[in-house]
């Protein structure tokens, strides 16, 4: 493979990464605050409540009420949830492979 082809692929990869990085942001609720379904206090949205809103949930809980709920859950349930959340979506691996392929043309 010639240097011109490698350069072409590198430019293509750079443009693709730029376009992916500048995709529109995820939607957020119009309201900046919500009323806690448990204690009825008004609280600002957090990443946790925004993610719940995106999943079409209708009840939101403030940080302290959510912490009380988490503490009341059995330990086994919590660890299963934490493991599932820590697995991630694999975006980093995709980006590494996407960058490594054009670089491998320079090496080989």
Describe it.
With 108 residues, the chain is mainly α. It has a domain at 29-72. 61% of the residues lie in helices and 6% in strands. The protein is built from 5 helices and 2 strands. It has helices at residues 3-21, 47-54, 63-72, 75-86, 91-107, and strands at 33-35, 42-44. The chain has a two-stranded antiparallel ribbon.
At a glance:
The chain is mainly alpha-helical and 108 residues long. It contains five helices and two strands.
Strand tally is: 2
Shape: elongated
* Overall pLDDT confidence: 81
In terms of per-residue confidence, which ranges show pLDDT below 50 for 5 or more consecutive residues?
A: none
For the record, give the distance between the C-alpha atoms at the N and C termini, rounded to a whole number: 9 Å
Radius of gyration: 22 Å
Main sheet characteristics? 2 strands, antiparallel
Structural class: mainly alpha
SS element count, helices: 5
Which bin fits the share of residues in helices? 55-70%
Secondary-structure element pattern, one letter each:
HEEHHHH
Hey, roughly how much beta strand do the residues contain?
5-15%
* Multimeric organization: single chain
Identify the strand order in the major beta sheet.
1-2
